[in-house]
From TrEMBL:
Keywords: Acyltransferase, Transferase
Enzyme class, first EC level, given as a word: transferase
UniProt entry tagged with the keyword Repeat: no
Occurrences of domain Enoyl reductase (ER) (ranges): 48-345
Molecular function in Gene Ontology: 3-oxoacyl-[acyl-carrier-protein] synthase activity; oxidoreductase activity; zinc ion binding
Protein name per the record: Phthiocerol synthesis polyketide synthase type I PpsC
InterPro entries with a match to the protein in the record: Chloroplast_QOR, ER, GroES-like_sf, NAD(P)-bd_dom_sf, Quin_OxRdtase/zeta-crystal_CS
PANTHER family assigned: ZINC-TYPE ALCOHOL DEHYDROGENASE-LIKE PROTEIN C16A3.02C
Domain of life: Bacteria
Known EC number: 2.3.1.41
One Pfam family in the UniProt entry: ADH_zinc_N_2
Keyword Manganese: no
């Protein structure tokens, strides 16, 4: 068999200093001949369903993938997760959905020729359709994963594969920010926005952060040059023009920002359901560039972000930590607002 597993006689030490077993048989349960685990999910077809702990089948890995025991997962708000599911037609073919993409954990099983070995600490961007994320175990592709430095805590590591990669791609690849650009980041205090501020500043950009008034000190500490409270002013009516607008929260359409985007300016949005063709057509018509962002995860992005972290050029703010069985409480944290960084779930199963 072309894989390796952890030696059950050798304990693996968690970040807390306590020995933990990463053998599948220690955590999963058998039911009807199948291996089951616990996971956090919600019912896609029920608009008001909350996050809940459910039984799920331990995902099967394929060649080029590894099975990872999840220690932490970075959470996406349920409201946003629903918008993504609806935009992708998820409601039509699945009953449950998992509100996360980035995880950190330890390898349980991998290919014999993989650079990732059983027991390794890894971070990964996980396709939630192929394998659970907020769960005891996840299937992770080698090409979407990276080793976690010993100096990086697991909770911070789980933020990089999704929030970190989104920020890096938006600023470096999609918006092509260069030194001297005036960049506006809408939703600057959340997990993606907080990292985007730092990455944009490192390119020499002048950054305007848009968030709630209470988060101004937080955004300025991360490097923002100017600040707009969305409670006091709609930036699309501001009269100022920017070279780049990165709409992290996906609430300002391309048509809404046209008047505040410079000639040749670039607009990037994470707005679910934004039609890339329509955005591109409008952009061409007005001599601007528009991108409806879709993350292109790869190990190179993770390696670059890890290097920034190790060189003390990137901090990873954690807003709050919840046990996985407290996922519903964690989601309510998003509804409270004033998010500063990322909300993460800790595997307590």
């Amino acid at each position: 068999m072309n894989n390796e597993t952890v030696n059950p006689t050798e304990p693996v030490i968690s970040d807390s200093g306590l020995p933990v077993s990463v053998r599948v048989c220690d955590s999963v349960r058998e039911r009807d001949g199948g291996m089951m685990m616990r996971a956090v999910a919600y019912e896609v077809a029920r608009p008001k369903s909350a996050l809940q702990v459910v039984d799920a089948v331990v995902p099967n890995r394929k060649a080029g993938q590894m099975l990872v025991r999840v220690e932490t997962a970075s959470l996406t708000s349920l409201k946003r997760r629903r918008r993504i599911d609806m935009a992708k037609g998820q409601r039509l073919f699945t009953s449950l959905s998992v509100p996360a993409y980035g995880i950190a954990g330890r390898v349980v099983e991998s290919d014999s020729n993989s650079k990732f070995r059983p027991g390794d600490r890894v971070m990964s961007h996980v396709n939630h359709v192929a394998g659970e994320v907020c769960a005891e175990f996840a299937v992770c592709g080698d090409q979407h994963s990276a080793l976690i430095p010993e100096t990086m805590p697991m909770d911070e590591a789980s933020v990089i594969p999704m929030a970190g990669a989104m920020a890096l791609q938006a600023i470096r690849e999609d918006a092509k920010v260069v030194s001297g650009d005036r960049v506006l980041i809408n939703g600057a205090s959340g997990g993606i926005g907080a990292l985007a501020i730092q990455i944009a500043k490192q390119t020499g950009a002048h950054v305007t952060a848009v968030a709630s008034a209470a988060n101004e000190p937080f955004c300025r500490e991360l490097g923002a040059d100017e600040f707009i409270s969305y409670q006091d002013m709609n930036f699309t009516w501001n009269g100022t023009r920017w070279d780049v607008i990165f709409d992290v929260v996906g609430k300002a359409s391309f048509r809404e920002v046209l008047d505040v985007l410079k000639h040749g300016g670039r607009y990037v949005s994470t707005r679910p359901g934004e039609d890339p063709t329509l955005v591109s057509w409008f952009a061409w018509l007005f001599s601007k560039t528009g991108t409806a962002m879709d993350l292109r995860p790869n190990a190179e992005k993770l390696d670059e972000l890890i290097q920034l972290y190790e060189n003390h050029r990137l901090s990873i703010p954690i807003d709050s930590r919840f046990a996985m069985h407290e996922a519903a409480d964690a989601d309510r944290r998003f509804e409270e607002g004033l998010i500063r960084g990322k909300v993460v779930l800790l595997n307590n199963f």
